[in-house]
Amino acid sequence: MSERLLVLVRHGQSEWNLKNLFTGWRDPDLTALGVEEATRAGARLKAEGYQFDLAFTSELSRAQKTLDLALNELGQTDLPVIKDVALNERDYGDLSGLNKDDARAKWGEEQVHVWRRSYDVPPPGGESLKDTVARTLPYYVTEILPKVLQGNRVLVAAHGNSLRALIMVLEKHTPETIMKRELATGAPVIYRLKADSTVESITDLAG
Predict the structure, then answer these.
(1) With 117 labelled, which of 3, 49, 51, 65 sits at a CA distance of 20 to 30 A?
(2) Annotation-wise, does 14 bind a ligand?
(3) Does the annotation count 182 as an active-site position?
(4) pTM, whole model, 2 decimals?
(5) 10 assigned to a ligand binding site
(6) How many CB atoms lie within 10 A of CB 16?
(7) Which InterPro entries match (predicted)?
(8) Binding site annotation covers 107?
């Protein structure tokens, strides 16, 4: 059996990351830096000798493009790819498209901080991280994890908060500690899993 390998990559910088806008389910493209970050992610994985059997991504183009660029570097452009809305970024609801400073001016710095950094308080019309976990984690358990446990080498390109939902389980975070878990854009995090689905080792290729 092949190793039980799961690699998570947050998409490269998007145009709205650069403009300091709440993005959520909106669909801006990558910036030139984002393209560079995604390409570098693939190059790092290639340099470490990684190859994959299957990939998953969201239905948002910034994650899909990141995956495409990484796979191009890996020479795996024909890899099977599964796209699903379950891996989409957290939905920021009424905050989507707003500049974060403008949002603070409208609702107050403390309220916006609560929406961004609390685990279970959603912004108006949007999702909390708890809601995102409730959407993303079942998909991981039913669709992604079984593939890894069967010995497939799986690459997931998605978003800061949908990946935090997976990391919460993989790294055994609490609702408090997961909010502080930063995930750099375009930086692969490599997990090797035991047969019982717990983590044997973690390698972070950030930097």
Answers:
(1) 65
(2) yes
(3) no
(4) 0.95
(5) yes
(6) 20
(7) His_Pase_superF_clade-1, His_PPase_superfam, PG/BPGM_mutase_AS, Phosphogly_mut1
(8) no
